[in-house]
Design goal:
This protein is of the alpha/beta class. Helix content is 33%, strand content 19%. The chain has a seven-stranded mixed sheet, with helices on both faces. Helix 1 (13-24) crosses helix 6 (205-214).
Amino acid sequence: MTLPFPLTEAPDEETSEQGRKLFAGPVDFLKGVVAMSGLPAADRAEVCFAGRSNVGKSSLINALTGRKAIARASNTPGRTQEINFFTLGESHYLVDLPGYGFANAPLPKVEAWQRLLKQYLSGRPNLRRAFVLIDARHGIKAVDEEIMSLLDSSAVTFQCVLTKADKLKAGEREKVLDQVRGKLAKHPAAFPELVLTSSEKGEGIATLRAIVATLE
């Protein structure tokens, strides 16, 4: 049976408030990790955000947390070279993974990041879900499918979050969603719902907050 991958419905009032409160509370940068030995204790629910460079990951994290610069947005692809851990109160870790798919970084550096990423994804017992960010204007590319296959093999459930929805031209939304759904059907670790977001317009932010808050 082919999963339809519908858009996640807007949360009810109670769940929406749960998400709002989580992200309105203390959000602090904990540490940047460059080796598995530096990971914090796996003592709380954890979610991670992955996406190719310039997908708008930093902007989305900033929008979720309501902070303008908790995640550094940059026009230079590959600036985030560490696994960055943030605490959401005392209940969750939010993890910003290194961007992938950039062409300008030195190959040894890219290989080191990829190795660390694989180790993290396969060895983090408290990781509840990975959010794979996809630019809504472009859909899923080959480099995105590589990370999805890695998540499949690591048995880590991932949910596709489309960014920059406000940049879509009229009539393009369904075409992109169809492309994304077709690609995701091949990935057994894909969570069967999509989230459409816009950091600038706020679309999907409350929904994503609620999803994170209910992953315990």
